[in-house]
């Protein structure tokens, strides 16, 4: 949990606490080549100039005050300053408290001017130099100064100043010049004797006991190419002779661009860089100047930051029993660390103020809270515009220089800026080419800039001092100063379409033309854009506060009374905190203001809180936690604001300190923070807080945020593809298990492949019923046939007993059919048996015929007919339609608390009309799908019809869409449905101005049946694959906006005509049945007659055979009787036997 505190020096001013950071105040910018002197009478050091790796050459004057351990930039009272330079020489004249510089280098070449700064009058004076031999323009010379004992202490100046060597315009020098500061006269020292130093670059000289000592620098003019010589020389000011005093047994170590100081009788030689530039040794060597052999020895330096001590081309001075070192270069990087080395300890110890990287002095820049950090952009420094971007960690107060990619904005100042979530917007301003009207957006997650090009024809004019507000997808721009004057226009720039629009409003109710106002935006309803204070066309400060209500398209006045000049402010800082408007800095109608006050919109009262301890003019400020952090702005000297001179002011103003005695504090923790006790804390990762005085809210499942201090739900980004998160308030996502699937925004792994195939359900061709009829007939045949067969078998088995067969015989006229004989009606068992067979078959035929009539009695004809042909028949085509859209892994709110569609979701239906159209929504909380239903009753589709869905939440994104469109067909009880899906590319989600597009082919249909009834409807198809919309990676969502889907319905030029008619009527059915029954009756009768005839024939044949056999038997018996008469004479017996036999002959057939 990050605590928004500042480990700073605190200053109590009335009821507010001001916090300086660092405790020493912001130090000078990193640099090398400054010139530095001790100011013992004021217990401070002073340095001037230098340059950095960005080729910035400085002309600033700084002091480090040991009484309060603070840096302070010193500004001249009249602005008559020397040109910026580096590697100049300097000295201090204590008697007149003048710090003087001489020579140095600029981008235009070397200098030989002499300037002195009065620490009493805070002004620079360019000195007129005298002498017959003036030094040539040069830099990198050795220099030293000393008090001249030949002058009385009462004299105004009693210092002499010497320079040696250096880099001139076209050569190196070995001249020694001495300046008499009493007369400002230079003398070229003569060389007596044979010894003379070589020409040198960056030698080191120092004064001791009437002599000037020289440590060799770089001897580039050496004929033997011996550039790195270890030589120690001494120049006697009395004899004017040079002496080589190099101790070859105990020499010093050669180093380039080293520095040193004299302390008592000892000279200390510090640091530098090795001859091959491979090392910046942390080394100090000393020489005892009282020893005639001048032996050198190393002095050990020990501390916690030894590796950061070594450097070259730094400033050095001694005061308060310490040697102080500032700036220089370490490994090609300029530093601004300040080292105080205690030379009396063995080994030497030191205090080390770490390098403090900061944006440096500037005015008219911007400072905005973005993604848990403060971002500083642009501004102006000494007439140069800046394009650098800096990031401040508000928990450690450490600045970081950002090196963004993308479309880098041109350098500018006086631009408008606003922030939301993880993005920064800048607009307009002034650059080297003049006024600007371009817009750029910065994404802190990707560290990239993007130009917001204008896609429309209208745009605000180039201008400065416009104020800017931003909601999720719109930039609002008000006022500003262009070449024609001060403006009162309110412009809106749509971040989705990149189109400007001038909002039509009653400007009489709004702010007057102004510039350099403060603006803010609140997401309240449709949004409110606040404009506070400003400067009017007469350069007078204003005292008005307004807001523009985007929902009502009108200005609302909060307070407006420019006659109340006590509270009028221009170029001030203003922040809206609930119903209070905090105001400080800038100027009132007379002069720059130190007031800190607020306006209470509820009580309509102004209240002063306190005074600032420094002027805040053309600075930048931001409210974070309960602290207003101010950076930069114009410098001030006493009661005067130096409007064109930038400062490095950096401090915080804690508003909660105003509430130390109150039970309830009206100052609230800012968005992105929450209050615990009397302290504001950054919301932890996985949460966000969008309002003043709110509590941190958890990111929903499937999303995460890994940083502190989120201000918007839009910063809860979906888990990237291949990861998931099943908990709220997550700061990271989990990797999906092997074999599972996790689209972006997943709440859980899926073990099933996502269905990415299209599907279609269309009305089938008419089922003739033939198969059903055949099936039913088979059932009838099998059932009736089986039962009938069983009955017939049983009857046949028990035929002799089945006497009822005679009674049911239906073929009474079919039994006796003899030619030329009358028909005799009679009933027989055979007739009864075949009657049963007739009924069985009759049932089968009748049932089958009825089944075919009922089931298989309709036929269908289809045709595609041009619509123009159908115009006389059909006036319009209507059908109930349902459009179902599944928004996969939707990031925004799907439904509100009432279960209705969230107001961020809307739709527009064009060229589709119905008796009623309504939309409903439902949320699938398992996987964050949002399902939208549109029902169009009696829907009529015209040419160019489409449905356009807009998802305008700041969290709107999706991994895919599944669209199902269903329409009732003209065919009764049938519908046409088509479903298709489109998914985002790997590691991306749908978002942005380009909609995903579905193109449906909508075919009108017309149905007519045999009863004369008719219907209309539509048949649907997808005539091409869906077109994916704009897509972004999750870390690009901060600079993308909205989500759109378009469903196009192309009305086909043909109509699907369907006509159905009966195969047969009921009269035809009855005729068929009668024909079948009587035909079957006749057929069965014929079969019965045939079978019965055969039976009768067989019976007749059997009877005839029996008669024949009987006759034969009788004949044989008669023959035997006759034989008996003849053989035994027993005629009488036989005859009697014959007579007495049974009268069976009476029963014999004829």
Automatic annotation (TrEMBL):
It comes from the Eukaryota. The keyword Magnesium does not apply. Gene3D superfamilies: Kelch-type beta propeller. InterPro entries: Growth_fac_rcpt_cys_sf, Kelch-typ_b-propeller. Residues 1-15 form the signal peptide. The chain crosses the membrane at residues 778-799, 830-855, 1066-1091. Keywords: Kelch repeat, Membrane, Repeat, Signal, Transmembrane, Transmembrane helix. This is Tyrosine-protein kinase ephrin type A/B receptor-like domain-containing protein. It comes from Blepharisma stoltei.
């Amino acid at each position: 949990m990050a605590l928004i505190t500042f480990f700073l020096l605190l200053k109590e001013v009335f009821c507010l606490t001001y916090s300086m950071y660092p405790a020493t105040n912001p130090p000078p910018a990193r640099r090398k080549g400054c010139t530095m002197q001790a100011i013992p009478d004021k217990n401070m050091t002073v340095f001037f100039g230098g340059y950095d790796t960005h080729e910035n050459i400085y002309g600033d004057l700084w002091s480090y005050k040991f009484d309060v351990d603070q840096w302070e930039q010193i500004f001249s009272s009249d602005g008559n300053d020397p040109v910026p330079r580096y590697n100049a020489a300097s000295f201090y004249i204590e008697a007149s408290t003048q710090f003087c510089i001489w020579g140095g280098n600029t981008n235009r070449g070397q200098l030989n001017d002499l300037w002195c700064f009065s620490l009493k009058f805070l002004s620079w004076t360019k000195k007129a130099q005298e002498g017959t031999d003036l030094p040539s323009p040069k830099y990198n010379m050795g220099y030293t100064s000393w008090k001249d004992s030949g002058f009385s202490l009462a004299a105004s100046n009693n210092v002499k100043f010497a320079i040696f060597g250096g880099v001139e315009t076209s050569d190196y020098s070995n001249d020694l010049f001495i300046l008499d500061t009493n007369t400002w006269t230079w003398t070229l020292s003569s060389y007596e004797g044979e010894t003379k130093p070589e020409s040198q670059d960056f030698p080191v000289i120092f004064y001791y006991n009437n002599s000037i000592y020289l440590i060799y620098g770089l001897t580039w003019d050496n004929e033997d190419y011996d550039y790195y010589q270890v030589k120690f020389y001494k120049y006697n000011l009395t004899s004017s002779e040079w002496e080589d005093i190099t101790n070859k047994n105990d020499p010093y170590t050669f180093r380039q661009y080293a520095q040193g100081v004299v302390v008592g009788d000892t000279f200390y030689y510090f640091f530098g860089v090795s001859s091959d530039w491979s090392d910046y040794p942390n080394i100090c060597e000393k020489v005892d100047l009282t020893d005639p052999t001048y032996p050198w020895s190393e002095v050990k330096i020990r501390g916690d930051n030894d590796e950061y001590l070594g450097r070259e081309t730094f400033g050095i001075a001694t005061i308060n029993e310490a040697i102080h070192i500032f700036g220089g270069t370490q490994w090609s990087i300029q530093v601004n660390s300040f080292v105080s080395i205690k030379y009396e300890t063995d080994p030497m110890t030191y205090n080390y103020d770490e390098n403090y990287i900061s944006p440096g002095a500037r005015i008219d820049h911007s400072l905005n809270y973005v993604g848990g950090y403060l971002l500083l952009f642009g501004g102006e420094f000494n007439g140069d515009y800046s394009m650098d971007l800096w990031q401040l960690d508000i928990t450690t107060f450490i600045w970081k220089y950002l090196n963004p990619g993308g479309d880098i904005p041109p350098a500018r100042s006086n631009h408008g800026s606003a922030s939301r979530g993880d993005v920064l917007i800048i607009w307009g301003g002034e650059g080297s080419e003049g006024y600007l009207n371009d817009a750029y957006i910065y994404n802190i997650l990707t560290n990239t800039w993007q130009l917001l090009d204008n896609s429309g024809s209208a745009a605000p004019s180039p201008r400065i001092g416009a104020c800017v507000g931003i909601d999720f997808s719109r930039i609002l721009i008000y006022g500003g100063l262009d070449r024609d004057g001060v403006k009162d226009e309110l412009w809106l720039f749509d971040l989705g379409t990149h189109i400007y629009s001038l909002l039509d409003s009653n400007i009489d109710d709004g702010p007057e033309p102004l510039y350099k106002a403060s603006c803010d935006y609140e997401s309240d309803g449709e949004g409110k854009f606040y404009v506070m204070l400003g400067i009017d066309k007469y350069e007078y400060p204003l005292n008005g506060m307004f807001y523009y209500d985007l929902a009502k398209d009108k200005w609302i006045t909060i307070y407006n009374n420019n006659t109340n000049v006590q509270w009028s402010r221009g170029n001030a800082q203003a922040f809206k905190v609930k119903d209070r408007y905090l105001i400080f800095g800038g100027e009132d109608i007379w002069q720059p203001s130190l007031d800190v006050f607020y306006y209470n919109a509820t009580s309509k009262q102004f209240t002063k809180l306190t005074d600032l301890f420094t002027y805040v003019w053309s600075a930048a400020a931001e409210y974070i936690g309960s602290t207003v952090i101010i950076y930069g702005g114009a410098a001030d000297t006493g009661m005067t604001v130096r409007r064109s001179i930038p400062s490095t002011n950096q401090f915080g103003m804690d508003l909660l300190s105003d509430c130390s005695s109150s039970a309830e504090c009206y100052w609230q923790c800012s968005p992105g923070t929450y209050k615990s006790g009397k302290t504001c804390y950054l919301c932890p990762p996985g949460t966000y807080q969008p309002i003043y005085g709110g509590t941190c809210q958890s990111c929903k499942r499937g999303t995460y945020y890994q940083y502190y201090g989120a201000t918007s739900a839009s910063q809860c980004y979906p888990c990237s593809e291949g990861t998931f998160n099943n908990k709220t308030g997550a700061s990271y996502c989990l990797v999906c298990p092997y074999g599972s699937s996790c689209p972006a925004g997943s709440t859980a792994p899926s073990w099933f492949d996502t269905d990415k195939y299209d599907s279609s359900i269309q009305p089938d061709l008419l089922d003739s019923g033939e198969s059903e009829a055949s099936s039913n007939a088979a059932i009838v045949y099998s059932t009736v046939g089986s039962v009938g067969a069983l009955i017939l078998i049983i009857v046949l088995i028990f035929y002799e007993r089945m006497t009822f067969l005679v009674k049911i015989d239906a073929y009474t006229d079919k039994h006796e059919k003899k030619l030329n004989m009358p028909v005799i009606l009679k009933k027989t068992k055979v007739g009864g048996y075949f009657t049963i067979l007739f009924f069985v078959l009759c049932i089968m035929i009748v049932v089958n015929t009825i089944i075919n009539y009922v089931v298989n009695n309709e036929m269908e004809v289809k045709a595609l007919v041009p619509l123009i042909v159908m115009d006389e028949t059909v006036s319009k085509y209507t059908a109930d339609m349902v459009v179902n859209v599944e928004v996969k892994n939707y990031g925004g709110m799907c439904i509100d608390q009432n279960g209705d569609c969230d107001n961020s979701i809307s739709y527009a239906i064009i060229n589709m009309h119905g008796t009623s159209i309504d939309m409903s929504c439902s949320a699938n909380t398992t996987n964050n799908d949002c399902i939208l239903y549109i029902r169009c009753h009696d829907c009529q589709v015209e040419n160019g019809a489409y449905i356009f869905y807009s998802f305008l939440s700041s969290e709107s994104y999706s991994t895919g869409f599944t669209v199902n469109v269903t329409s009732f067909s003209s065919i009764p009880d049938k519908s046409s449905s088509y479903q298709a899906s489109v998914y985002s590319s790997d590691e991306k989600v749908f978002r942005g101005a380009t909609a995903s597009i579905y193109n449906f082919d909508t075919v009108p249909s017309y149905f007519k049946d045999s009863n004369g009834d008719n219907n209309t409807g539509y048949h649907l198809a997808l005539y091409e694959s869906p077109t994916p919309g704009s897509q972004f990676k999750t870390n690009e969502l901060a600079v993308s906006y909205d989500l759109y889907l378009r469903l196009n319905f192309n009305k086909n030029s043909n109509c699907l005509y369907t006509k159905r008619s009966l195969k047969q009527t009921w009269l035809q059915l009855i005729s068929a049945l009668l024909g079948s029954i009587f035909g079957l009756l006749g057929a069965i009768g014929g079969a019965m007659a045939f079978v019965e005839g055969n039976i009768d024939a067989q019976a007749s044949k059997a009877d005839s055979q029996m008669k024949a056999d009987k006759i034969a038997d009788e004949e044989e018996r008669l023959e035997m009787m006759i034989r008996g008469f003849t053989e035994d004479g027993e005629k009488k017996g036989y005859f009697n036997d014959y007579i007495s036999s049974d009268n069976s002959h009476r029963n014999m057939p004829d």
